[in-house]
Write a structure and sequence with these properties.
Low-confidence stretches: none
CATH superfamily of the largest domain: Alpha/Beta hydrolase fold, catalytic domain
Structural class: alpha/beta
Number of helices: 11
Distance between the termini: 33 Å
Helix content: 25-40%
Largest sheet: 8 strands, mixed
Order of helices and strands: HEHEHHHHEEEEEHEHHEHEH
Mean pLDDT: 91
Radius of gyration: 27 Å
Oligomer: single chain
Length: about 350
């Protein structure tokens, strides 16, 4: 199901190929062994078993000197047609390795463009396709497994000053749950309601205390929601020292897994926000007068796109976040922390 490492090697058969592997790598050697065993058959079937090989070195994750020596022998044999013995490595002086006088291509080529410039050029000529809302609806609902909402409080309400606090949970899909913290004026049976969507979810509630106080003073309720992987739904670390949002961290791994499944973390979170609207409508404190949404930070993206799909969002207020991804492409350098959690693949082909 899908392309695996052996399929990549198959694309090279029957040309000469040498696989290099570190025996103590964090990539399991067992995977290398299985791939090499399967791929070797391709060269045998082509009658060129001698053109395929594998060399492993007892080292951790690196390109070791022994691997370099073996690679040099491989290229010497198949490109020069002769065997070499002894040391094959000649370490050139840094000056001899420069392809330009200064070592900076950006300073010596008038037509040089950085990656950000190339991205912007591509985005500028990218033709807009058909109905963006129909496309967005497809990707947000792709492969979801709807389930009964089963909205329920986790415990009785608490009173903090003049505010009533209630923790709620509900199902977003089969075997998946959403969580929200309802903050409402104490003594009010029903109130108009605003859903709050910000980076960090309910764990970042204190960071927005001033805004919440304003809403409570105005007689409104605030429903702070946790989207997938945020707040109370935050996953355990994928590895002992893995950071939550940094590159190669826990949410990075989740986002990459979703991409491999033809999904994305933004699409999943937008879906979760739509389910949070269902939950908000079921809250006994909601007065039924229409839902508002407040989006803050990069998470405002989810609110902006959810509004395009659900007319129940009668008003939307956003602070911060990326307002134009075409402009975001031009930022240099840009903040890439949790970038996969806020980038919806394919979006610029339909809208910005």
């Amino acid at each position: 199901d899908g392309c695996d490492h052996a399929d990549i090697l198959l694309s090279c058969a029957p040309k000469p190929v040498l696989v290099l592997a570190a025996e103590y790598d964090f990539f399991p050697k067992e995977g290398t062994d299985e791939t090499v065993a399967e791929a070797r058959r391709y060269w045998e079937l082509c009658g060129r078993a001698e053109a395929f090989g594998c060399f492993t070195d007892a080292v951790f994750h690196c390109y070791s000197d022994a691997m370099q020596q073996e690679a040099a022998r491989f290229f010497s044999r198949w490109l020069l047609g002769k065997e070499y013995g002894g040391s094959l490595l000649v370490r050139a002086e840094p000056e001899r390795s420069l392809c330009t006088e200064s070592g900076q291509t950006s300073a010596e080529y008038a037509d040089f463009k950085r990656a950000a410039q190339l991205y912007c050029d591509y985005a500028a000529v990218l033709p807009r396709r058909g109905d963006g809302e129909a496309w967005l609806n497809r990707v947000v609902h792709h492969s979801r497994r709807p389930a009964a909402l089963n909205l329920r409080p986790l415990r009785a309400s608490d009173q903090v000053g003049e505010t009533r606090c209630t923790r709620w949970m509900w199902r977003t899909q089969e075997e998946m749950f959403g969580y929200g913290l309802l903050l409402a004026p104490w003594g009010r049976k029903t109130v108009p309601l605003t859903l709050a969507v910000w980076d960090g979810g309910t764990k970042a509630t204190a960071d927005h205390a001033a805004w919440i106080d304003e809403q409570i003073a105005a007689g409104r309720g605030v429903f702070v929601v946790d989207l997938a992987g945020e707040g109370q739904t935050e996953p355990y670390p994928v590895a002992p020292n893995a950071k939550l949002l940094r590159r190669y961290g826990t949410m990075y791994k989740l986002a990459c897994d979703l991409l491999m499944l033809g999904d994305s973390l933004p699409a999943l979170r937008i879906y979760d926000l739509l389910k949070a609207l269902d939950a908000a409508e079921g809250l006994p404190e909601y007065d039924g007068g229409g839902l508002s949404v407040f989006g803050c930070g990069r998470s405002a993206l989810y609110a902006r796109l959810a509004r395009r799909l659900d007319p129940r969002i009668q008003s939307l207020t956003c602070e911060g976040g990326v307002e134009s991804y075409s402009a975001f492409l031009a930022e240099e350098p840009y903040d890439d922390e949790d970038i996969l959690g806020h980038t919806l693949p394919g979006m610029l082909a339909y809208f910005d």
